[in-house]
Amino acid sequence: MDQSLHALLTELYEFGRANDTANSDRSRKMLNITPDTGEFLELLVNAIGAERILEIGTSNGYSTLWLANAVRATGGRVTTVEMSDYKLGLARANFLRSGLASFIELVHRDAGDYLKQPSLSPFDLVFLDSERDQYVGWWPSLKKAIRAGGLLVVDNALSHPLEVRDFIALVRSDSSFLTSLVPIGNGEFLALRRAG
After folding, report:
1. d(CA 124, CA 162)
2. Per-residue confidence at 27, pLDDT binned at 50, 70, 90?
3. I need a surface site. Which of 3, 43, 122, 144 has the fewest CB within 10 A?
4. Residue 164: how many other CB atoms lie within 10 Å
5. Side-chain-side CA neighbours of residue 125 (13 Å)
6. How far apart (Å, rounded) are the C-alpha atoms in residues 84 and 59?
7. Where does residue 191 fall: left (phi above 0), alpha (psi -120 to 50 degrees), or beta otherwise?
8. Mean pLDDT of 38-61
9. May I ask the CATH class of domain 33-193?
10. What distance lies between CA 173 and its chain's CA centroid?
11. What is the helix (H) or strand (E) element at residue 94, kind and residue range?
12. Dihedral angle at the C-alpha atoms of 56, 1, 41, 71, nearest 10 degrees?
């Protein structure tokens, strides 16, 4: 990672922490992943050679930049979906500052509606960091959005276990997925869609 991107990521992470401490309104919080989660995502993208990545929950673009830096090496692209106008504005500015904007498609849309598009092609990796109470309802569409051999990564699996418990149980009950809970950052739940 080059120095300028590292400096920007450090700045955004610190901004997110300060912002979240100062705001009680969840809609104004950044709720960013941790730096070690960012490193882990970058490693996963490179390990599976992911070119098509879907991120649900952009916030200010901190996690998106980790993913975009990874797809720069694989020749891919990150599609990131966010509903908040406020967060979209922050993310767009941060993408331009990063020099990675050409690797990112920023979508202003409800994630559930986005996932239901009949023409949506499957992704190599889906990173889920959004409204946790919606995950169970999104599952049929999410499953279709993950290619065979593709990977689902869900943030906050350990920091908010009750909020993701039903979703994790649902995915684990699906024999077409191999799953693991990894104690990195806020806890990452991984589900690999079996090939064939």
Report:
1. 28
2. confident
3. 3
4. 23
5. 28
6. 8
7. beta
8. 97
9. alpha beta
10. 22
11. helix 85-98
12. 60
Reported confidence tier of residue 65, pLDDT bands at 50, 70, 90: very high
pLDDT confidence band for 193 (50 / 70 / 90): very high
**What is the rounded distance in angstroms from the CA atom of residue 57 to the CA atom of residue 68?**
14
Give CA–CA dist 179/45, Å, rounded: 17
Q: What are phi and psi of 121, to 5 degrees?
A: -85, 145
DSSP count for the chain of H helices, then E strands: 7, 7
The type of residue at 147 is R
91 in Cβ contact with 82 (< 8 Å): yes
Query: What is the mean pLDDT of the segment spanning 47-65?
Result: 97
pTM here is 0.96
Please say if the pLDDT value at position 66 is more than 80. yes
121 HSE (CA, 13 A, CB side)? 5
**pLDDT at residue number 161:** 97
State pLDDT tens for residues 97-117.
999 999 999 999 999 999 999
**How many CB atoms are located within 10 Å of the residue 107 CB?**
17
Q: Find the radius of gyration of the CA atoms of the chain.
A: 16
